[in-house]
Amino acid sequence: MRRTFPLDAELAAALVNIPVYDLERLDQTRALDRSFGDTLAVAASREETLAGKVVVSDLVVPGAGGVELKARVYRPADPLGKPPVLLMCHGGAFCLGDLNTEDFRSRRYVVGAGVAVLVVDYRLAPEFPFPVPFEDCYSALLWLGAHADTMGLDQNRIGVAGESAGGGLAAALALAARDRKGPGLAAQMLLFPALDHRMTTLSIRAGQDYPAWNSVQTKIMWSYYLGETEGAVSPYASPALAVDLTGLPPACIFTAEFDPLCDEALDYGNRLLAASVRSEIHHTLGTYHVYDAVWPLAAISDAALRQQETFLKTTLA
After folding, report:
1. 251: three-class secondary structure by DSSP
2. Catalytic residue at 302?
3. In the structure, what pLDDT confidence band is assigned to residue 126 with cuts at 50, 70 and 90?
4. Is 45 a catalytic residue?
5. What is the pLDDT of residues 139-158, one digit of tens each?
6. CA–CA separation, 314 vs 308, rounded Å?
7. Among the options 139, 164, 234, 301, which is catalytic?
8. Pairwise CA distance, residues 240 & 265, whole Å
């Protein structure tokens, strides 16, 4: 018998609109995901509070090994000086997603927080397992650090963000920027992040049939991303493995009650706090994985997006 969950009413009603993702049928699922992302992007472009306030341009940035990656910049139509910039790693289980995936969220951040957003179309697993997606994003971060000023952006106020798999990539970028002495980061925003390939938490064990995203899908996700990895897994692939979290930028972490990734994100947030990293953790009841992205016009999603905007204004703008 299928369980029912005490979800927020608007989010519960929205479940009928969310595609059922079968990662074992990846081609079909990618087509569904692209269609859903395109729908959200159209909705974002027509949203009255966003229309006419955001300038969007496409460009190319270098990925790992010099490969050219598609990217997109969102910036305020009427900026006051050079705005800060956020490198956004899109979600999609490391195997889905494109530049449209974070369209609504990016436009919200530009209008609500006064920041510019760079979204990178990194290469996807399983065709390109770790370290390619991570190194693509890190190469884009290096490029942003070197070119922000000439783009009219503030090179001294750069942050990283991502949701789901993108949240794991953003956490890894913060670690790598510290370890490799890369661009100084002013913020990291980890939204429902995938951080721990070991899958040993209580929420993973409880989440076999969670709505929107479950533990079964999570296991396939990690198998795609790690590929044929043998031996020790890098903390840049699975950031929960990082032993030292000191010296990282201020963090904002979002978790959802009925999300198999919930506990690993809470654990990571508590470890950041223990390492004296300025951090805030937002855990919301009655919600599922990336609820603010899959149904952004729900009241509870709007509240979450406003909290994210406040964090960005506090740390970047």
Report:
1. strand
2. no
3. very high
4. no
5. 999 999 999 999 999 999 99
6. 10
7. 164
8. 9
Residue 3 forms part of a structural domain:
no
CATH number of residue 244's parent domain: 3.40.50.1820
Which of these is catalytic: 103, 259, 263, 292? 259
Total domains in the chain come to 1
* Order of strands, sheet of 279-288, starting from the edge strand that comes earlier in the sequence: 54-62, 68-76, 116-120, 85-89, 158-163, 187-191, 251-258, 279-288
Give the global pTM.
0.96
> The tokens of 114 are what?
């006064």
Residues facing 290 on adjacent strands: none
Whether residue 214 has pLDDT greater than 90? yes
Q: Is residue 296 classed as helix, strand or coil in its secondary structure?
A: coil
Q: Among the residues of 180-261, which ranges form H helices?
A: 202-206, 215-226
147 as an active site residue: the answer is no
For 241, the domain range is 9-224+235-315
What beta strand segments (E) does the chain contain?
Answer: 54-62, 68-76, 85-89, 116-120, 158-163, 187-191, 251-258, 279-288
pLDDT, tens only, 248-292: 999 999 999 999 999 999 999 999 999 999 999 999 999 999 999
